[in-house]
Each structure stands twice: as structure tokens, then as C-alpha cells.
């Protein structure tokens, strides 16, 4: 398996997103595995601030040169901020997926749902399964 | 990947950490490092592609010329030895069976380079239409094809044992020895950049591939995959079979009338095109001339969004056509695309919208090719 970076202080999802708690908010982005799979990211479409997300439903899209991928909401909640820098510099998601390439912050409607997300070990195992040489 | 065919360069792709994807039944590299980097390398320096999945169908015998003349839209009779020409194989209704590059190797020997996804179809099409005195040989599996494209292509080849004066001029071929291997060097390509396509025996391909990368390292050559190949050809507005061309699309609709010889020559499809009201002067008349129900346009996105194949083209709230190819153009820094619209909407400057998911995003018809390169006058493969 290639050498991916998965910080151990984050929560993860099966859709290759990471979440970081910041008081009552969560910051959301895509993982190093996801950005690597996508290749050069050329366009990111994010929701308006104030939009309500529904767990499991697309809240935006992320496009690489060749493909369009849905961004799937890990939790239901309200979009509090979006990373506007991605409008002119979508490549930040490739370059710094855990830092400058963050996507949105969300106020979860049910913070206990965070407990259902994957920890670093579970996520690593999920990537290992999918990343085997095909 | 195990059920997929492998080109002679498969081991090299794995060694270079290519991302392999299924394409036309083969495991092919879509990228090695990044599509944008590989695209930029071709535009500014050089890129090396493995396109061995494409097919080579050889026709020979005293009736080969006559047979091919009736099968393709371009003139065969006037095609000189060691020259190449682009053309279309048409079906009985004037639609495209494939777009091909025809190369004449001798008075009675020519070959077609055909799209990987159409090799079997074209071989069967030809075999069922030529007489027993025309020999048709499918040399696809034994022939490797590399494409070395970019401004540094010629000087890279001169480091492999040939002089610059040995290299063929555009649309010509030459038999040269490169790094010890016999290669048919064709001054053709599918990127809108200067460069060459190299035909050689499969078993020798990996060594040449490596030799070219080595010789070009000082220029900053990169191995390049199908992802970059697509964005490059799109910038050059070159058609891709299965997108801009298919069995129901005529070459005139696709803006390829200049590759169609006069319709009174009696080749397959000519009668149908005449019946549709075309004549070879359509190209000169422009789309508002006779016979066209739709025409291919190039457009750029003026609003924020990326147009992709199969997205709908909108005008005044109505669906008027479909995108056939679309992508962000690394060189232009904007999103571009090709698509079919009614002739009334194909003038340069025409404003349209592209329906991207649920939003109609503004676009504008622009000139083709999108990129001003030396290749503007000719279409290459």
C-alpha cells in the first residue's frame, strides 16, 4: 500500500472524509487517500453557509480532470463556514488535505453521531482493503 | 487487471508506478504522476505515450489501392509512398465507422492505424468488403506504438542515433534505426504538439521506451498517460471516436468535410451524404450551408463549472444539444468542450448554457482549435 498520511487525532468515514472537532463544530475534509485517488483536483463545489446537510446525502462535488465525485455528508447539521479559497485554488485539496484544503465546518444536529464514525485504525483497515493492487 | 490485455510496455508502466485503468480491453496508464504535469510536459518539453493498444491493419496486393479508395473518405490514389493521411471509414448511411490514419508503405501496400476500441469492427468491415485478391493483415498485437510529442521531440530522437535531416517532415514516415531497433517513424500525432509516432516490433518496445525517457531526461521528458492524451487532443479540438464521431454522425456534421473527397467518387457512404444534401463544399460554406441538421462547436465556459461528455446544451431554456467532450484545459486555464448544436447556434460568439447537475452555466462558442499551435491547418492523430 502506498504511504498515506492519516493523522491519528481525526475521525474518518467510509467515504474517505476526515472530521476534526472544534468545540461545538466539526471541520470536514477529504483524506490523503481520497485526494490521491482523485488526482489533480480542478473544481470544488461547496454549499452555501446556512445549508442543512443530511447524513449520507451529497452536500457538494469535487472534480478532478477526469471525474466528478459527490461529497457525502457524514452528519446532519448546519453548514457554518466553507473554504472559499478553494474557488480559485482547488489544488489546495491535493496539497494540504488536512490543512488549507479543508472543505466545510458543520454544526452537527446530533453530536452523539460522531461516535459512529471510524477511528484511525478502522479507517486504515478500510483503505488497505480497497487499495490492494487490482 | 488480470483479464485485461497488456501492451508490450506493461512492465514499464508498473515500474514507473502508472495508475492503470481498463481501456478498450487493455490495462492502460491513465497517468504516471499527474495529468496536468504530463499535459504541461507535452506542451512545453516532451511527453512519451504508449498507444500500442491501437490497431494496425495492413492491406496489400494489386487491388489494395482500389479497395481502400472505396472504403475511406480520403484520397488513396494521390497518397504518395511514405506519406500519411487522415480519413474516415464511412458506413452506408454516411456515418463514421472509425477515423483512421492511412499510411502508404509501397505502391501496393498501405496500412490503417485504427482506434483500439474499433480494431475488430474495422477489420471485419474491411475483410467483408475487399475481394480475395486483397491481402488484409491484422498486425495490431505484434506492433507497438509509442508517441513522442512536444517541442523537444525531434532533438530527443537525434540522441538515439539519427540525424535531424533523417527525421520525416509532417505527415511523412521514414524507416530509421533508433537505439538499435528498426522503427517506422511517423511525423504525426494526436496532441496538437509537434512530434512523432513510432511503430516497432512489440518485443523491442520496452527498450526504446526506456531509451527515449533516458535521452529526454535532460529536456524534462515525462511518460504521459491517456488522461493527458485526452486533455491535449481536446485543446487541439481533435475528435475522439465514441464522442464526436460515431456510426450516426457524418463527417460534415463533425466539421471534417475537408477530409472527404468529392462525393461523386463512389466510395461507401458517398451516396448517402449526397442524399442528405451535402457536397464537399459544405466545409467552405460553413454550417449554415445545406444539408446539416447539427454541427460540432467548440465552446468555453464563461460561468463557473466544468462541462463533461453527455451534459445537455441549453439555449433559451431549451435543450438544444449535447456535450461530446469537456474538461478543464490546463494550458488555457479555462474549461472547454465540444458538442453538437443546431446550425443556427454555431457561430463564434454564440452564447449557450451547459446544464451541470441542476444549474445552467454560461458558455460561449469559440474558434477551433482552442489552442493556436503550428498544427492549426491540419488534423493529426
Structure summarized in a few sentences:
The complex is a heterodimer of chains A (134) and B (381). Chain A is of the alpha+beta class and 134 residues long. In chain A, 16% of the residues lie in helices and 33% in strands.
What does this structure look like?
The complex is a heterodimer of chains A (134) and B (381). Helix content of chain A is 16%, strand content 33%. Chain A is of the alpha+beta class and 134 residues long. Chain A has a single domain, classed as OB fold (Dihydrolipoamide Acetyltransferase, E2P). The radius of gyration of chain A is 14 Å and the shape is globular. The model of chain A has no long low-confidence stretch (mean pLDDT 93). With 381 residues, chain B is α+β, with helices and mostly antiparallel strands. Among the domains of chain B are: 139 residues, Gyrase A, domain 2; 121 residues, Alpha-Beta Plaits, CATH 3.30.70. Helix content of chain B is 19%, strand content 32%. In chain B, strand 5 and strand 6 form a beta hairpin. The longest helix of chain B has 14 residues. Chain B is globular and about 60 Å long. The interface between A and B is medium-sized, with 12 and 17 residues.
Task: Provide the fold topology.
The complex is a heterodimer of chains A (134) and B (381).
Chain A: E1 11-12, E2 17-22, E3 25-30, H1 32-38, E4 41-45, E5 52-53, E6 58-64, E7 68-72, E8 77-82, H2 92-95, E9 104-108, H3 120-130
Chain B: H1 10-15, E1 19-23, E2 26-31, H2 35-44, E3 47-50, E4 55-60, H3 64-71, E5 83-90, E6 96-106, E7 109-114, H4 119-127, E8 135-138, E9 143-149, H5 153-158, E10 173-178, E11 181-186, E12 195-201, H6 202-215, E13 222-223, H7 226-235, H8 270-275, H9 282-285, E14 295-301, E15 312-315, E16 318-329, E17 334-341, E18 351-356, E19 359-366
Parallel strand pairs in B: 3-13
Antiparallel strand pairs in B: 1-2, 3-9, 4-7, 4-8, 5-6, 6-7, 9-12, 10-11, 11-12, 14-17, 14-19, 15-16, 15-18, 16-17, 18-19
Helix pairs in contact in B: 2-7
